[in-house]
Specification:
Blueprint: E1 2-8, H1 23-36, H2 42-54, H3 60-69, E2 75-78, H4 90-102, E3 106-111, H5 117-131, E4 138-140, H6 149-156, E5 160-161, E6 171-173, E7 176-178, E8 183-184, H7 185-189, H8 200-216, E9 221-225, H9 236-251, H10 259-269
Parallel strand pairs: 1-2, 1-9, 2-3, 3-4, 5-7, 8-9
Antiparallel strand pairs: 6-7
Helix pairs in contact: 5-6, 8-9
This protein binds zinc ion.
Amino acid sequence: MKAIISHDIDHITVSEHLFRDVILPKYFMRMHIELLSGKISAHEYMLRWSDILKNKWQNIDELITFNNINKVPSSFFVAVNKGVGLNYSNEAAAVWIEQMLSRKCELALHGIEYDKADLIQSEFQLFHQLTNQQQFGIRMHYVRNTNNTYQMLAKAGYTYDSTEHAFKNPYKIGNMWEFPFQIMDGWIIENYKSWQSINFEKAKENTIKLIDKAADMNLKYLGIDFHDRYFSHSFKTWLNWYMWLVEYLKNNGIDFVNFNDAIMELESES
Ligand SMILES: [Zn+2]
């Protein structure tokens, strides 16, 4: 089994949310619950405020550097439309797209349109125009999908999708590879709540169970979704969890590949 780690870009600044969505009130509620329930320290709580003053809710540079040191290929999903608490502009995204491409990261779309073929098609075109990439994949924001989403994505021309959450090997829909993923940072650390509801030890224990399940099922690839936003001391459990996970996989002889490497492997087998 190899691991494919990827990162969804949901936020760039704090101010992009002002008067546009309810992300900020939710953020305040969440940090107070976490402080009062002892899940975060006073120091971490203060750092959350300092992120607001710095107007910084992304950690892309820091994450690429960490990944490079650990030989983890950086694979990103960046949005070009707004929706469901995602409110950064194309101009703001362009700065990071340039950075990702210049640092040889794998770049794909964080999709907003999931249920109308014409909108899916125009989102594909827009990403193509903004990134100058010919071939790229997609993961839907909030993994939204209907019975027809994957068919429509394949038709639009995506090389791969990684929206499905399932313990399954990659499979083809038309010319598109679907890469089901198994581990999402939020599902582990929030554990069915809207705030951090378990501690680091429990998070590790639950993660190992999922890795063992994937190994027992002989999955070729273990799909992991970690948001760059949490690669920060303001989210200490999340940061520690990600650093521990990379180390754990390395110690267990699991290599890291990106989606395009995996597609090459899959297509050379068949
Ligand atoms: Zn997202």
